[in-house]
Amino acid sequence: MRPLAERAGLGVTDLAWGIHDVVNENMASAARVHIAEHGKDPRRYALLCTGGAGPVHAYYVAKKLGLSRLIAPRGAGVASALGLLIAPARVDRVATVACEMDQVSWRELEATFARLESDARSVLAATLPDAAQPAIARLADIRYVGQASELVVPLPAGPYTGASRDGLMHAFEASYVAAFTRTPPTTQVEIINVRVSASIEVETAAPSVNPVDAAPSSTVSATRAAGVKGTRPVYFPEFREFRPTTVYDRYALVPGQAFDGPAIVEERESTLVIGPGGRFEVAASGNVVVAIG
Predict the structure, then answer these.
(1) Which architecture, in CATH terms, is 89-200?
(2) How far apart are CA 104 and CA 161, in angstroms?
(3) Range(s) for CATH 3.30.1490 in the chain?
(4) What's the pLDDT tens digit per position in 69-94?
(5) DSSP calls for 244-263
(6) pTM of the prediction?
């Protein structure tokens, strides 16, 4: 980055922090828009950070949002892979109907759902022949007439008849209020797509920590037992310079321990940054909970 730093009239460190800060601001801005669209106050929430770089950025993203704490789960960098391993076996099917609610042929709608459910069941039966019967969820993409986008709405169980209209309308209105806090002054609704989700819970072992990593032996030094790996110089914008900063081994930390920032917490999948004024504690769940300074 040195040529760019020279062109910008900045030091390499200032340029690097500027890039990092722009990335943080982009994420914070996206969060502000998402939260505002739902009529919520971000200060009422904690930030849960996942992804390999999530814990690296989370502290300063949380500060930009005015949050008081963030939560760093164990194995944040492999959360998607872990989710894949423990998620139910699932098959989704969709069909387009594109019809106003008042013009729905309920016999045809029920037939469409039945066809999608049969298809989903057959795939799961071929994949997991000895499994129990799947749980079936019905959903639909519904919108008010004139809108450009739909909500995916969980629907009541079938079979559907003309008497089902009120139930579907109630489900849509509840989802709309949950997403946008109120409904517009119109009652004209159309169903664009119908969906079926068939799922079977699969047996999985609970994730665990290597006991060697989790519990240091009695021969380990007191420093190591406290979770400290050492120190290294780290740049923080509050200091505008590198300062010696304590580095912790996440696998050596135990529930109940608490430390003041600035600090770095390292694990195989990611690195958690705690800024000056922050404080972190290891929860019973294994999550690291950070109070923002």
Answers:
(1) 2-Layer Sandwich (3.30)
(2) 10
(3) 89-200
(4) 999 998 898 988 888 888 888 999 99
(5) EEEEEEGGG--TT-EEESSE
(6) 0.67
